[in-house]
Design a protein that fits this description.
The complex is a heterodimer of chains A (about 110) and B (about 110).
Chain A (H helix, E strand, L loop, with lengths): L3 E3 L4 E4 L4 E7 L6 E7 L5 E7 L4 E3 L2 E6 L4 E6 L8 E8 L9 E2 L3 E6 L1
Parallel strand pairs in A: 2-11
Antiparallel strand pairs in A: 1-3, 3-8, 4-5, 4-9, 6-7, 7-8, 9-10, 9-11
Chain B lengths: L3 E4 L2 E4 L4 E8 L5 E7 L6 E7 L2 E5 L6 E7 L2 E7 L7 E8 L9 E2 L3 E5 L1
Parallel strand pairs in B: 2-11
Antiparallel strand pairs in B: 1-3, 3-8, 4-5, 4-9, 5-6, 7-8, 9-10, 9-11
Classes of the chains: A mainly beta (about 110), B mainly beta (about 110).
Chain lengths: ~110, ~110
Amino acid sequence: RKEVEQDPGPFNVPEGATVAFNCTYSNSASQSFFWYRQDCRKEPKLLMSVYSSGNEDGRFTAQLNRASQYISLLIRDSKLSDSATYLCVVKGVGSSASKIIFGSGTRLSIRP
Amino acid sequence: DTEVTQTPKHLVMGMTNKKSLKCEQHMGHRAMYWYKQKAKKPPELMFVYSYEKLSINESVPSRFSPECPNSSLLNLHLHALQPEDSALYLCASSQDLNYNSPLHFGNGTRLTVT
């Protein structure tokens, strides 16, 4: 089993739709969680950190479920510009940076 | 605009060449990273520097040689690369190695080895 798993997609949804992705992690001791977006041939950009209580930033909502060991990203009222690959990132215990683990990414395509 | 700057943006080099990739950040971050990313794959960690000291080397071949001249700069020296080393090389920084410090990536150097 991979340490961090994401549905690779692609998700192809119409503009204005709501779409959600999950990311599961295997290490229950994982400490922090992030969502990044990556456009084609560009660098990953931090979208949002994921807090235990869940957090929202505009149309984006991130949630953490420690009991089931997954994080989720919800995008409401999707825009064409939301088309990208979404990477979940899990950081482990302590200060070891090698415990930064990327999921393989979920491709999202928004159609007009 | 990214706050981590990488140069060059593109690099084509032969297998006998020596070249260097450069990375600079002025956010006062004390951890800096090199990642390699192949198409349609997530970034793979290569090296981590913490407070200008090499903290992690993820078993990277010696043809890749990192250097951290000061807290703002990170270099990756390349020598005798193979065509399979062609990839996007990403530099990143974080405040420190604390678990809640997110990574901030530069825009990458797209390397082609011929």
